[in-house]
Structures are given as C-alpha cells and as structure tokens.
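User: I'm designing a mutation panel for Type-4 uracil-DNA glycosylase and want to avoid disrupting the core. Could you give me a predicted structure to guide residue selection? Please restate the sequence first so the numbering is unambiguous.

Assistant: Good idea. Sequence first, for numbering, then the predicted structure tokens:
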Amino acid sequence: GRKSGATIPITAEKAQPDREQPSKLDECRRCELWQYATQAVPGEGPRGSKGGAPIMVVGEQPGDQEDLAGKPFVGPAGKLLDRVFAQAEVDRKSIYLTNAVKHFKWEPKGKRRIHKTPAQREVEACHYWLEKELDAVRPKVIVAMGSTALKSVLGRSTVTLKDTLGKSVRHEGRWVVTIYHPSYVLRVPDEAARQEAFSIMVKGLKLAHELLE
Ligand code: URA
C-alpha cells in the first residue's frame, strides 16, 4: 500500500499552473485561438523598470500580416495608423502598441484568411496579457481603438464606443481615450466620411498627448 503522508493531494488546477497562468505568450492556452494562428503577437514599444511608454495604444487582434510577421500593425491597418501618428505628430517608437487579443482569429475564404471578431470570452482570457503589459509599461494614457479594445481596457464597464469616442475617461488611475479602429476607417465607403473618421483618430491621439502635460 501507499505510505501515509507520501503524497499531498493536489487539484488538477494546481498541477497545471501554466494552463491558467502561462509565463510565455506563445505557450498560452487560455483560449482556443492559438491552434489556428502562426504565432502570438506581443505588444511593441518601451517597457521596463527604467520607465515605459507614457501612451499605450490598444487595437483588436493581429491581422493576416501581423500573424505572419509576429509584430503588431504591419499590414494595411498599420499603414493607416502610421498616417494618423504622422498627422498627430506622435512618434510610433515612443508609444507602446498592442492588441486586446494576441492571436489572429480567422476563417478561410478561398485562399485568403478573413478576420473574425474575437468573442467576449477570448477578450477576457487575453486580458491576462494586457494586465501584464500594463504592469510593465505603466502608461499614463491608454488609447483604445474600437470597441474590442475598449471592452478589454474597461473590463465590466458598459460604456460603449459611441459614449466615449474622442473623449477621455478616468479608469483605474489612468486616462482612457477612445478612437476608431483603423480597419474601420479603411472600410468607410464615402470619402468625406472617411476623412472625418480619420481626423477623429488624429484628434484623439493629440488629446492623449495633451493629457500627459
Ligand atoms: N488590426 C489590429 O487590431 N491589430 C493589428 O495588429 C493589426 C490589425
């Protein structure tokens, strides 16, 4: 028989801490999305004990090109975002750029991979990583691009994109500024409306900068 006291009963959860609290992003199994993605895409920008970026910009999830490159905002949405940064006179290297969800969620359409909006449970699972980034970067202002980013940043809040677009709200000791997502701006069919949406993004970034002063 078994020697008494030889084994300490442990729960399945305690036996697999990495499942719930992974230390490496690429080993994350907190939701199912890792199975279909090439790799996880971490945020990019200044972080660490010497002081991180004062502004953190949060998108939705990597797209097709980001999934392949392993870097955020390198595809069409990133190109538009670069134009927004230029017009707002914000240096992309000075900000921390990341996504609410770190794996690309997609469905096949012919030979292409079409973006699928992440589910609430996937956004919640991946919030674990956003929290780690917030701890490491300690930004003064968060810019949430689109409603997925806003939901992740504000957690249980019922505040919507419409309520906060272009405005700043206080949340857990920081400012949160909401702007459109660049992919949304790319899809606005009417030229004048697209220009307007673009300028709302620029104004939001300028506001984020003003909040640092
Ligand atoms: N859209 C996003 O939300 N993030 C990216 O990194 C690319 C496209």
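For picking mutation sites, this is relevant: The chain has a mean pLDDT of 93. DSSP finds nine helices and seven strands in the chain.
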